[in-house]
Structure formats: C-alpha cells, structure tokens
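Researcher: Re-running this chain for the archive, since the previous output was lost when a drive failed. Same request as before.
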Amino acid sequence: MATRAERFRAEQQRAAHDGKPKEAGHDPAGKRARQRGRIKDRYPNPTSHNEAPRSAKNSAYELEPSTSARPSRKSTRRSPTHIKTDAPLRVTTVIRNASPQARAQRRPDH
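Model: Regenerated structure tokens:
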C-alpha cells in the first residue's frame, strides 16, 4: 500500500504529463511516397527466405529442387561453401554424455 507521500508524488507526475500531446508514429513508406506524388508499386518478395537469390552466396546448404511431393532436401554437395555442418551432431553428443543417466553410469562405485 502506498503512503500519502507516494500517492501525492505519483499524482504530480501524472499531472505534469497530462497536457502534452501523444507522439505520433511515422507514416508508412507508401503514404509518404503518395504525398510526394510517387507510387510505391513494389510488392513484398514472394520468394521464401531460403530460396532468395542472395541466400545462395554464403549458404552452407543448397535446396535441391523436388521432383516429387516430398520436400527437397538440404544438400551440402552443391553448396558454395561445401561445408558439412556437424554442429547438431556435436551438440547431440554433448547432451547425451552430459545427461544425468550417462553421468551416473560413468560414476565409479564407492
């Protein structure tokens, strides 16, 4: 429960900011372009993020086109970096070895 002094101070702070107008956010780019007599006729990129042309530059994977209903696989064979990422394998190994069950099995009997 607030004291009288705390309530008074809170009321003073509210009163100090009462008369100030709210700050408006910025206008969207299309609205700003129309005000300048231009048309923003660009549409959002319909390509998904992993199929965009820029993604092929530094990607560790290349999506192979699918010829069946099954989704395409991630291939490291044709990727520009030719890296076989082993991070998921290493993380899985660390988690498996650090689990309480694995630690209990390694523990020497007393």
